[in-house]
Design brief:
The chain has eight helices and eleven strands. The protein is globular, with a radius of gyration of 21 Å. Helix 2 packs across helix 8 (269-287). The protein has helices at 28-33, 89-101, 118-128, 145-152, 167-174, 234-237, 257-263, 269-287, and strands at residues 2-9, 12-17, 20-26, 42-47, 53-58, 75-81, 105-111, 134-136, 156-160, 200-203, 209-216. Helix content is 26%, strand content 23%. It is of the alpha/beta class and 288 residues long.
């Protein structure tokens, strides 16, 4: 019987099938192969006489993550607050890079839109509008939640973004039955205290699925080669081969088409500054 692992706790997996949800354990063959089952896995199960089940096989994954342990993600909803805390675009772009690396389509979700005026919204939208979908929401008022639901559609999505930006609050608006705990903002650090303890999938009324996870909140998520980084900025990747030098890193090289595009306003200055900051971080990692 085919099914989807929707929750995993203490070595037990809960598999949603056409005939209901079954508690299951994986066969020993998975351990021998060094394969750890994860939430999001499409599996084949065998129901036992006691009503529990064993997982016999798992389908090939299209992507996977170790922390948190989830697989087969369609979209990242990359969340940041328009203020309180102030956006750090270098960090926001780290999550976008991670999505690009795993073949996942990002959706930009700007929370706390009730705190901003139209001009502030336009400034934020201008950074990403020609690259990714941008949706303004308010976890407090519910503004934009329907638009976000429509963008999610029937896909499997995971929220990503810095702590304290309202990911849990937004999830509660989309799926009230998830009833995620929301951490208070630390007055000292302006960062949230995330309270999710295990991984679980909740289904939206529209047929989409949301991974409730401890979150992609680590700042140390930039894993890329220096020469590859430009490929994870779509607007920079579009200009590949147009610089004078084939090995141009778009930093201080002469006749760089990317830097020209920044001056022309075709690449947003904030995105370019993010690229430079992340490139410097990669160089420091390589050095040490």
């Amino acid at each position: 019987m085919k099914g989807l692992i929707i929750k995993g706790i203490g070595g037990f997996y809960y598999v949603k099938t056409a005939n209901g949800i079954f508690q299951a354990k994986g066969r020993g063959i998975f351990k021998k192969r060094g394969l750890t089952l994860a939430v999001g896995d499409q599996v084949d199960i065998e129901v036992l006489e006691d009503g529990n089940a064993v997982i016999n096989s798992v389908e090939e994954r299209k992507n996977q993550f170790i922390r948190p342990p989830i697989v087969n993600v369609d979209n990242f909803v990359v969340v940041f607050a328009i203020k309180n805390p102030k956006p750090n675009f270098s960090i926001v772009d780290k999550f976008l890079i991670m999505a690009e690396q795993h073949g996942i389509q990002p959706i930009i979700c700007v929370n706390k839109s009730d705190l901003a005026d139209d001009e502030e919204r336009k400034e934020i939208e201008a950074i990403y509008k020609d690259i990714y979908p941008v949706i303004f929401v308010s976890g407090k008022t519910g503004e934009g939640i329907d638009a976000l639901k429509k963008e999610i559609g029937t896909h499997k999505i995971a929220f990503a973004g810095p702590s304290g930006v309202g990911k849990s609050t937004i999830t509660n608006k989309i799926i009230p039955e998830a009833n995620m705990e929301t951490g208070d903002i630390s007055s000292k650090t302006n960062r949230g205290k995330h309270t999710t303890r295990h991984v679980e999938i909740f289904e939206t009324a529209e047929g989409g699925m949301v991974f409730d996870t401890p979150g992609f909140t680590s700042f140390d998520i930039l894993e890329a080669d220096e020469a590859e980084l430009m490929d994870y900025y779509p607007e920079i990747a579009e200009l590949k081969g147009q610089c004078k030098f084939d090995n141009c890193f778009h930093l201080k090289e002469p006749l760089c088409r990317v830097r020209e595009a920044v001056e022309e306003g075709k690449i947003h200055k904030v995105r370019y500054e993010s690229y430079v900051a992340n490139m410097e971080e990669l160089k420091k990692k390589k050095k040490y």
